[in-house]
Protein backbone atom coordinates (compact mmCIF):
# COMPACT_ATOMS: atom_id res chain seq x y z
CA UNK A 1 0.00 0.00 0.00
CA UNK A 2 1.29 3.44 -0.92
CA UNK A 3 2.28 5.59 2.05
CA UNK A 4 0.11 8.70 1.69
CA UNK A 5 2.37 11.42 3.02
CA UNK A 6 -0.17 14.16 2.26
CA UNK A 7 -2.41 12.76 4.98
CA UNK A 8 0.38 12.75 7.56
CA UNK A 9 1.90 16.13 6.81
CA UNK A 10 -0.04 18.51 4.60
CA UNK A 11 2.89 20.95 4.61
CA UNK A 12 5.42 18.52 3.11
CA UNK A 13 6.84 20.29 0.06
CA UNK A 14 9.69 17.85 -0.76
CA UNK A 15 10.18 14.15 -0.12
CA UNK A 16 12.20 11.12 -1.19
CA UNK A 17 10.62 7.95 -2.57
CA UNK A 18 11.30 4.88 -4.67
CA UNK A 19 9.76 4.11 -8.06
CA UNK A 20 7.67 0.92 -7.78
CA UNK A 21 6.11 0.82 -11.26
CA UNK A 22 6.41 2.51 -14.63
CA UNK A 23 3.86 2.29 -17.43
CA UNK A 24 4.63 4.68 -20.28
CA UNK A 25 4.73 8.13 -18.70
CA UNK A 26 2.84 6.92 -15.58
CA UNK A 27 4.96 6.32 -12.50
CA UNK A 28 4.06 4.83 -9.11
CA UNK A 29 5.99 5.50 -5.89
CA UNK A 30 6.22 3.65 -2.56
CA UNK A 31 5.27 6.90 -0.78
CA UNK A 32 3.89 10.15 -2.07
CA UNK A 33 2.96 13.67 -0.98
CA UNK A 34 1.39 14.37 -4.40
CA UNK A 35 -2.36 14.59 -3.80
CA UNK A 36 -4.44 12.77 -6.44
CA UNK A 37 -7.62 14.48 -7.69
CA UNK A 38 -10.47 13.42 -5.42
CA UNK A 39 -13.06 14.61 -2.93
CA UNK A 40 -13.51 17.77 -4.99
CA UNK A 41 -9.84 18.78 -4.66
CA UNK A 42 -7.62 19.04 -7.73
CA UNK A 43 -4.34 17.12 -7.98
CA UNK A 44 -0.91 18.45 -7.16
CA UNK A 45 1.83 19.04 -9.71
CA UNK A 46 5.61 19.32 -9.34
CA UNK A 47 8.79 17.46 -10.26
CA UNK A 48 10.39 14.04 -9.79
CA UNK A 49 14.19 13.77 -10.17
CA UNK A 50 16.78 10.99 -10.29
CA UNK A 51 19.96 10.15 -12.20
CA UNK A 52 20.40 13.81 -13.11
CA UNK A 53 17.02 13.84 -14.86
CA UNK A 54 14.08 16.01 -13.80
CA UNK A 55 10.55 15.28 -15.03
CA UNK A 56 7.33 17.25 -14.56
CA UNK A 57 4.40 15.75 -12.68
CA UNK A 58 1.52 16.94 -14.86
CA UNK A 59 -1.35 14.97 -13.28
CA UNK A 60 -1.97 12.69 -10.29
CA UNK A 61 -4.88 10.24 -10.21
CA UNK A 62 -6.20 7.51 -7.97
CA UNK A 63 -6.99 4.08 -9.36
CA UNK A 64 -8.36 2.00 -6.49
CA UNK A 65 -5.52 1.90 -3.98
CA UNK A 66 -2.95 3.00 -6.55
CA UNK A 67 -1.70 6.55 -7.00
CA UNK A 68 -0.64 7.27 -10.56
CA UNK A 69 1.76 10.14 -11.30
CA UNK A 70 1.54 11.20 -14.94
CA UNK A 71 4.85 12.73 -16.06
CA UNK A 72 5.74 14.68 -19.16
CA UNK A 73 8.06 11.69 -19.80
CA UNK A 74 9.47 8.82 -17.73
CA UNK A 75 12.59 8.52 -19.88
CA UNK A 76 15.71 8.03 -17.76
CA UNK A 77 13.76 6.44 -14.86
CA UNK A 78 13.73 2.75 -13.86
CA UNK A 79 11.83 0.73 -11.27
CA UNK A 80 13.77 0.83 -7.98
CA UNK A 81 15.22 4.30 -8.60
CA UNK A 82 15.41 6.52 -5.53
CA UNK A 83 13.83 9.81 -6.55
CA UNK A 84 13.55 13.24 -5.00
CA UNK A 85 10.19 14.89 -5.41
CA UNK A 86 9.06 18.46 -5.13
CA UNK A 87 5.54 19.85 -5.06
CA UNK A 88 4.42 23.02 -6.79
CA UNK A 89 3.76 24.50 -3.35
CA UNK A 90 2.01 27.67 -4.44
CA UNK A 91 -0.63 25.58 -6.20
CA UNK A 92 -1.08 23.11 -3.32
CA UNK A 93 -1.22 25.80 -0.63
CA UNK A 94 -3.92 27.62 -2.57
CA UNK A 95 -5.92 24.37 -2.88
CA UNK A 96 -5.57 23.86 0.90
CA UNK A 97 -6.86 27.36 1.67
CA UNK A 98 -9.85 26.88 -0.64
CA UNK A 99 -10.63 23.43 0.73
CA UNK A 100 -10.76 24.62 4.34
CA UNK A 101 -12.87 27.62 3.21
CA UNK A 102 -15.47 25.32 1.63
CA UNK A 103 -15.77 23.38 4.92
CA UNK A 104 -16.23 26.67 6.79
CA UNK A 105 -18.97 27.86 4.48
CA UNK A 106 -20.86 24.55 4.72
CA UNK A 107 -20.63 24.58 8.52
CA UNK A 108 -21.81 28.18 8.83
CA UNK A 109 -24.68 27.65 6.38
CA UNK A 110 -25.79 24.68 8.53
CA UNK A 111 -26.03 27.02 11.55
CA UNK A 112 -28.65 29.05 9.66
CA UNK A 113 -30.30 26.17 7.80
CA UNK A 114 -29.85 22.93 9.79
CA UNK A 115 -31.54 20.82 7.07
CA UNK A 116 -29.10 21.90 4.35
CA UNK A 117 -27.58 19.16 2.24
CA UNK A 118 -24.14 19.65 0.76
CA UNK A 119 -24.45 18.11 -2.70
CA UNK A 120 -20.94 18.67 -4.05
CA UNK A 121 -18.14 21.09 -4.60
CA UNK A 122 -14.99 21.69 -6.54
CA UNK A 123 -11.73 23.22 -5.40
CA UNK A 124 -9.55 24.87 -8.02
CA UNK A 125 -6.32 26.82 -7.66
CA UNK A 126 -8.00 30.23 -8.02
CA UNK A 127 -11.61 29.62 -6.93
CA UNK A 128 -13.93 27.09 -5.34
CA UNK A 129 -17.63 26.40 -5.33
CA UNK A 130 -20.02 24.48 -3.14
CA UNK A 131 -23.52 23.29 -4.10
CA UNK A 132 -26.34 23.00 -1.63
CA UNK A 133 -29.83 21.55 -1.53
CA UNK A 134 -31.24 24.41 0.50
CA UNK A 135 -34.50 26.09 -0.69
CA UNK A 136 -34.09 29.10 1.64
CA UNK A 137 -30.53 29.95 0.59
CA UNK A 138 -30.53 33.24 -1.34
CA UNK A 139 -27.93 35.85 -2.22
CA UNK A 140 -28.56 37.80 0.97
CA UNK A 141 -27.89 34.74 3.14
CA UNK A 142 -24.86 33.84 1.02
CA UNK A 143 -23.38 37.30 1.70
CA UNK A 144 -24.04 36.86 5.43
CA UNK A 145 -22.37 33.44 5.44
CA UNK A 146 -19.25 34.79 3.78
CA UNK A 147 -19.10 37.59 6.39
CA UNK A 148 -19.42 35.10 9.22
CA UNK A 149 -16.85 32.79 7.61
CA UNK A 150 -14.45 35.74 7.42
CA UNK A 151 -14.92 36.36 11.15
CA UNK A 152 -14.11 32.70 11.89
CA UNK A 153 -11.04 32.90 9.62
CA UNK A 154 -9.76 35.86 11.62
CA UNK A 155 -10.46 34.18 14.97
CA UNK A 156 -7.73 31.69 14.05
CA UNK A 157 -9.20 28.23 14.60
CA UNK A 158 -6.84 25.24 14.58
CA UNK A 159 -7.55 22.64 11.89
CA UNK A 160 -6.56 19.02 12.52
CA UNK A 161 -7.12 15.59 10.98
CA UNK A 162 -7.22 12.10 12.44
CA UNK A 163 -8.50 8.58 11.76
CA UNK A 164 -11.56 7.12 13.50
CA UNK A 165 -12.78 3.52 13.60
CA UNK A 166 -16.25 2.82 12.13
CA UNK A 167 -17.55 2.49 15.71
CA UNK A 168 -16.19 5.89 16.72
CA UNK A 169 -17.47 7.45 13.50
CA UNK A 170 -20.97 6.02 14.02
CA UNK A 171 -21.26 7.92 17.31
CA UNK A 172 -20.88 11.31 15.62
CA UNK A 173 -24.03 12.58 13.89
CA UNK A 174 -23.69 14.10 10.40
CA UNK A 175 -20.02 13.22 10.16
CA UNK A 176 -20.36 12.34 6.51
CA UNK A 177 -21.79 15.23 4.57
CA UNK A 178 -22.51 13.70 1.16
CA UNK A 179 -24.29 10.58 -0.13
CA UNK A 180 -21.31 9.31 -2.17
CA UNK A 181 -19.21 9.87 0.95
CA UNK A 182 -21.52 7.63 2.96
CA UNK A 183 -21.23 4.83 0.41
CA UNK A 184 -17.43 5.10 0.35
CA UNK A 185 -17.14 5.22 4.14
CA UNK A 186 -19.10 1.96 4.57
CA UNK A 187 -16.27 0.02 2.98
CA UNK A 188 -13.48 1.59 5.03
CA UNK A 189 -11.87 0.25 8.17
CA UNK A 190 -10.81 3.70 9.29
CA UNK A 191 -12.40 7.01 8.46
CA UNK A 192 -10.31 10.14 8.21
CA UNK A 193 -11.91 13.22 9.69
CA UNK A 194 -10.96 16.87 9.42
CA UNK A 195 -11.88 19.19 12.29
CA UNK A 196 -11.96 22.98 12.30
CA UNK A 197 -11.92 23.31 16.06
CA UNK A 198 -15.14 24.75 17.44
CA UNK A 199 -16.68 25.00 13.98
CA UNK A 200 -16.83 21.76 11.99
CA UNK A 201 -16.01 18.06 12.03
CA UNK A 202 -16.44 15.93 8.93
CA UNK A 203 -15.16 12.87 7.10
CA UNK A 204 -12.68 14.08 4.49
CA UNK A 205 -9.70 12.95 2.46
CA UNK A 206 -8.36 16.35 1.44
CA UNK A 207 -5.49 18.58 2.54
CA UNK A 208 -6.16 21.60 4.75
CA UNK A 209 -4.40 24.57 6.30
CA UNK A 210 -3.35 24.20 9.97
CA UNK A 211 -5.12 27.38 11.08
CA UNK A 212 -8.02 29.31 9.53
CA UNK A 213 -5.96 32.53 9.76
CA UNK A 214 -3.82 31.29 6.86
CA UNK A 215 -6.78 31.63 4.49
CA UNK A 216 -6.65 35.43 4.51
CA UNK A 217 -9.74 37.05 2.99
CA UNK A 218 -12.55 35.28 1.16
CA UNK A 219 -15.13 36.96 -1.03
CA UNK A 220 -18.37 35.83 -2.65
CA UNK A 221 -17.50 35.58 -6.35
CA UNK A 222 -20.88 34.31 -7.50
CA UNK A 223 -24.23 33.13 -6.20
CA UNK A 224 -26.14 30.88 -8.59
CA UNK A 225 -29.73 29.84 -8.07
CA UNK A 226 -30.16 26.72 -10.18
CA UNK A 227 -33.47 25.80 -8.53
CA UNK A 228 -34.69 25.19 -4.95
CA UNK A 229 -32.46 22.18 -4.53
CA UNK A 230 -29.38 23.49 -6.27
CA UNK A 231 -27.77 26.67 -5.06
CA UNK A 232 -24.14 27.41 -5.71
CA UNK A 233 -21.79 29.60 -3.71
CA UNK A 234 -18.54 30.42 -5.49
CA UNK A 235 -15.71 32.01 -3.53
CA UNK A 236 -12.41 33.69 -4.24
CA UNK A 237 -9.51 34.26 -1.88
CA UNK A 238 -8.07 37.75 -2.21
ZN1 LIG B 1 -13.56 18.44 2.07
Could you describe the 3D structure shown?
The chain has 238 residues and is of the alpha+beta class. It has two domains: 3-87, Elongation Factor Tu (Ef-tu), domain 3 (Beta Barrel); 92-237, 2-Layer Sandwich (Threonyl-tRNA Synthetase, Chain A, domain 2). The protein is built from five helices and 15 strands. It has helices at residues 5-8, 89-112, 139-155, 166-170, 179-186, and strands spanning 3-4, 14-23, 26-29, 31-32, 46-50, 53-63, 66-71, 82-87, 117-123, 128-133, 159-165, 190-196, 200-203, 218-225, 231-237. The termini are far apart. The model has no long low-confidence stretch (mean pLDDT 94). The structure holds zinc ion (ZN). Zinc ion (ZN) binds at residues 39, 99, 103, 204, 206.
Task: State the main characteristics.
alpha+beta, 2 domains, six-stranded antiparallel beta barrel, binds zinc ion, Elongation Factor Tu (Ef-tu), domain 3, four-stranded antiparallel β-sheet, 5 helices, Threonyl-tRNA Synthetase, Chain A, domain 2, globular, 238 residues
Task: Reconstruct the topology from this structure.
Layout: E1 3-4, H1 5-8, E2 14-23, E3 26-29, E4 31-32, E5 46-50, E6 53-63, E7 66-71, E8 82-87, H2 89-112, E9 117-123, E10 128-133, H3 139-155, E11 159-165, H4 166-170, H5 179-186, E12 190-196, E13 200-203, E14 218-225, E15 231-237
Parallel strand pairs: 1-4
Antiparallel strand pairs: 2-3, 2-8, 3-7, 5-6, 5-8, 6-7, 9-10, 10-15, 11-12, 12-13, 14-15
Bound molecules: zinc ion.
Zinc ion (ZN) is lined by residues 39, 99, 103, 204, 206.
Amino acid sequence: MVDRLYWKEAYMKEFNAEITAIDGAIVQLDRTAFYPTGGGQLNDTGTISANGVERQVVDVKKNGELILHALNSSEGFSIGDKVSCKLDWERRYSLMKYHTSVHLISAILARHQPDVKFTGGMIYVDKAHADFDCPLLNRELAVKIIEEAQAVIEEGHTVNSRFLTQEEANLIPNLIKTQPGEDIAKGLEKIRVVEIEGVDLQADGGTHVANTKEIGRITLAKFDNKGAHRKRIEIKIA
